[in-house]
Write a structure and sequence with these properties.
The structure is a single chain. The C terminus is likely disordered. The relative contact order is 0.16. 32% of the residues lie in helices and 23% in strands. A hairpin with a 4-residue loop joins strand 13 and strand 14. Strands 9, 10, 11, 12, 13 and 14 form a six-stranded antiparallel beta sheet that branches. A four-stranded parallel beta sheet has the order 2-1-3-4, with helices on both faces. A four-stranded antiparallel beta sheet has the order 5-8-6-7. The protein is α+β, with helices and mostly antiparallel strands.
């Protein structure tokens, strides 16, 4: 397939810049190995206006976090008329907000842990949350990824410090019920216009702490794919991954994260519309288990690049 000149958008200015640089570098190398005229484009250092002036025809978005995964870049690309991978403006913006995501999932009857939303005007509620949500619980900035700013709170006395940390990143803070069980993730990839789930992955991190270090640096975290969940639970997780994707109007590809309770119930935590593509990342791992190489996965995603809103210079195939 002739893609024309392709830009790989990476880097950016978010707290996940370093991960994005790794993802983008690997995506760029894969495209070039496939003979595609691909070029790296660091949105943290280059103006998006250069994409049009330099003749890019489509882009692979390997940005993570704010300014790249939240609909802002997608909106600019729509205006420039440059086809892009992944979800459109609305779905990207919604999925970036864990609170809005959970509210929409709830309206669709999808299982997600109980939660509360706290801001500077409602911090007095913090003392009530152990009774409402139980202990331990998680305190999160709703617009960050890669476990940035997240605290697992085991005692009520730790809540204020956890809130203060999360509030460095967001004006509102998500406080979420803790689900005791296994951590899972399940990628969704659109093929022939239909969303399909890849095999689920079970994550076994040292001490049960899947933090930034254990995600991207340590080699001690274990990833089980097949996840050894049993057919019924594997099928349920894959179904929920696709439903969570469709409920938000996602496109192209994404990765849904779950907790699997000890009673076998999967609970949706969040969905990533521009997942990691590093050598530690989970979508490439799931693709390999499904018989799809890293390079073929990247090309498959690029093939789905399009304009979603139709407000640019015309749809590029």
């Amino acid at each position: 397939m002739k893609f024309g000149k392709v830009g790989v958008l990476y880097g950016g200015v978010s707290a996940e810049r370093e991960v994005s640089l790794k993802s983008g570098t690997m995506v760029l190398a894969a495209l070039q190995r496939k003979g595609i005229d691909a070029h790296g484009f660091d949105t943290g250092k280059q103006s998006l206006a250069e994409l049009a002036s330099q003749g890019f025809e489509r882009v692979f978005i390997a940005l993570h976090g704010r300014g790249g995964e939240d609909g802002t870049v997608q909106g600019v690309l729509e205006l420039l008329g440059i086809a892009y991978t992944g979800s459109g403006v609305m779905a990207s913006s919604i999925a970036m907000d864990k609170i809005t995501t959970k509210r929409i999932w709830q309206t669709h009857g999808l299982p997600t842990p109980k939660y509360a939303v706290i801001d500077k005007n409602t911090t007095a509620r913090l003392s009530q949350l152990p009774a409402e949500l139980g202990l331990p619980l998680f305190v999160k900035p709703p617009h960050e990824g890669s476990t940035i700013g997240i605290t697992k709170v085991s005692q009520a006395s730790e809540l204020q410090a956890a809130y203060d940390l999360a509030a460095r990143y967001d004006d509102t803070v998500l406080v979420e019920q803790f689900i005791d069980g296994a951590e899972l993730t399940c990628a969704v990839l659109e093929r022939d216009g239909r969303a399909q789930a890849l095999p689920a992955i079970r994550i076994v991190a040292p001490g049960g702490n899947y933090d930034y270090h254990n995600k991207y640096i340590s080699n001690d975290t274990k990833y089980l794919c097949p996840a050894e969940l049993g057919d019924a639970i594997e099928t349920r997780v894959r179904e929920l991954a696709v439903k969570s994707f469709e409920a938000l109007g996602c496109a192209g590809w994404a990765r849904a994260d779950f907790m699997l309770a000890k009673d076998g119930t999967p609970w949706l935590l969040e969905i990533n519309t521009s997942p990691g593509m590093t050598d530690h990342s989970l979508v490439p791992m799931a693709a390999r288990a499904a018989g799809v190489s890293y390079d073929d996965l990247v090309v498959n995603i690029l093939e789905g690049a399009s304009l979603k809103a139709g407000i640019g210079r015309g749809q590029k195939a």
